[in-house]
């Protein structure tokens, strides 16, 4: 049976993707570390779309052994993943010398390593079938350095470059890779990242609007999507200024008095 696999699907962008693909009557594999939220989402989707099969996996994607166990489990079932959406991820706003380094390493694990591993695992199967869609969630943060959120910016830059690279390689197999680079959107991200200072000055988009745009762009085979006119402009103008200036402006947007 064919499935769409969505990480970070218990809330935010991942949850909105689950709504969209469930509406398309696609079977779902939903992955998140919040087991209770996953159960609630499954009940909600099953009421609306009783004909689709929904499998839940509550795992911590920062733990590679968890990922390997998860992949081993689904390999024993009649499952073909035709769409992979890597939307799991988190950030943290903190001075570099004061940061919780274990949290930063976990962030790198979720934002980068899990995404890399899942892309590699499922793209091989997609290539065999000469078909498949991958959506990797990066950010406009991936286009610039980010003092006081250095790890997050670095991980999103990794996702951007990795996705563009594998997208080029996989196109000959009929596999489409979309790199989604949203700006701020409404989710639990701000609370978890302790970044109220930056977001209070912005007008974030609705997560469902970002998901819809990405859903449509993936269907069209688009390679890169930056959501929002202001975000597109922000990324565009970084080409014309020294990186030192962009870093300084980025720092001031992160922390008062930076």
Protein model, in words:
Strands 3-2-1-4-5-6-7 form a seven-stranded parallel sheet, sandwiched between helices. The chain is built from ten helices and seven strands. β5, α5 and β6 form a beta-alpha-beta unit. By secondary structure, it is an alpha/beta fold. It has a single domain (2-254), classed as 3-Layer(aba) Sandwich (Rossmann fold).
In a nutshell, what does this entry contain?
The protein contains ten helices and seven strands.
Task: Fill in the keyword field for this structure.
Rossmann fold, 10 helices, 51% helix, 16% strand
Topology of helices and strands:
Elements: E1 2-7, H1 12-23, E2 27-32, H2 35-48, E3 54-58, H3 64-75, E4 80-86, H4 101-129, E5 132-137, H5 150-170, E6 175-181, H6 189-193, H7 196-199, H8 207-220, E7 224-226, H9 229-237, H10 243-254
Parallel strand pairs: 1-2, 1-4, 2-3, 4-5, 5-6, 6-7
Helix pairs in contact: 1-8, 4-5
Distance between the termini: 53 Å
- H-E order: EHEHEHEHEHEHHHEHH
Give me the secondary-structure category: alpha/beta
Strand order of the largest sheet: 3-2-1-4-5-6-7
Radius of gyration: 18 Å
CATH topology: Rossmann fold
Give the overall form: globular
Question: What's the level 1 CATH class?
Answer: Alpha Beta
Helix content: 40-55%
Number of domain modules: 1
């Amino acid at each position: 049976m064919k499935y769409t696999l969505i990480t970070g699907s218990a809330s935010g962008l991942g949850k909105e993707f689950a709504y969209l693909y469930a509406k398309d009557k696609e079977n779902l594999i939903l992955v998140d570390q919040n087991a209770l939220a996953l159960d609630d989402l499954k009940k909600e989707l099953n009421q609306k779309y009783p004909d689709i099969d929904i499998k839940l996996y509550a795992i911590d994607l920062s733990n590679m052994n968890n990922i390997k166990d998860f992949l081993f489990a689904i390999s024993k079932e009649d499952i073909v993943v035709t769409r992979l959406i890597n939307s799991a991820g988190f950030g943290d706003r903190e001075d570099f010398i004061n940061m919780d380094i274990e949290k930063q390493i976990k962030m790198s694990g979720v934002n980068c390593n899990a995404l890399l591993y899942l892309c590699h695992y499922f793209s091989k199967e997609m290539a065999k079938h000469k078909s498949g869609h991958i959506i990797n969630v990066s950010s406009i943060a991936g286009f610039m350095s980010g003092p006081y959120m250095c790890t997050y910016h670095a991980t999103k830059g990794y996702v951007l470059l990795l996705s563009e690279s594998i997208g080029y390689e996989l196109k000959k197999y009929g596999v489409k890779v979309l790199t989604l680079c949203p700006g701020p959107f409404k989710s639990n991200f701000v609370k978890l990242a302790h970044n109220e200072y930056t977001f209070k000055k912005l007008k974030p988009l609705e997560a469902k609007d970002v998901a819809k745009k990405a859903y449509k762009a993936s269907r069209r085979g688009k390679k890169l999507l930056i959501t929002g006119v202001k975000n597109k402009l922000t990324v565009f103008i970084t080409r014309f200024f020294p990186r030192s200036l962009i870093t300084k402006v980025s720092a001031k947007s992160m922390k008062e008095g930076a």
